[in-house]
């Protein structure tokens, strides 16, 4: 019996205000945390892994996008930073529902 891959969504467009710095760019074993998250999800069988990144005009946006894409993620880069995590998840669900909507996802 064949199983279909389950997509994963990483809502990574937040400001990291409590952290004081972009947490997805913190190094973990020499790699940005976002790259490690994407690799772990892909290694666990998630496909595709979708990362909602900060907008391209933010300080951290291009670096988060590059690290996530380099690890094999598909990117959604909104023009404006979502105010709440829910908005990032909704963007990803809309993206996933365009062609062949999955029966579930990993968040």
How is this structure best described in words?
The chain is of the alpha/beta class and 107 residues long. It is built from 3 helices and 5 strands, in the order βββαβαβα. A 3-stranded parallel sheet has the order 1-4-5, with helices on both faces. Strands 2-3 form a two-stranded antiparallel sheet. The chain is globular and about 40 Å long. The protein starts with 7 loop residues before the first strand and ends in an 11-residue tail after the last helix. The mean pLDDT is 92.
Question: Concise description?
Answer:
The chain is α/β, with parallel strands linked by helices and 107 residues long. It has helices spanning 33-43, 61-70, 85-96, and strands at residues 8-11, 27-28, 31-32, 49-52, 74-76. It has three helices and five strands; from the N terminus they run E-E-E-H-E-H-E-H.
């Amino acid at each position: 019996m064949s199983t279909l891959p389950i997509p994963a969504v990483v809502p990574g467009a937040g400001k990291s205000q409590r952290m004081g710095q972009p947490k997805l760019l913190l190094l973990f074993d020499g790699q940005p945390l976002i790259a490690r998250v994407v690799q772990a999800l892909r290694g666990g069988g998630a496909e595709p892994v979708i990362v909602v990144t900060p907008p391209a005009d933010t300080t951290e946006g291009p670096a988060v996008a590059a690290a996530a894409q380099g690890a094999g993620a598909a990117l959604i880069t909104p023009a404006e930073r979502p105010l709440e995590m829910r908005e990032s998840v909704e963007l990803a669900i809309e993206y996933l529902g365009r062609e062949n909507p999955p029966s579930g996802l990993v968040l």
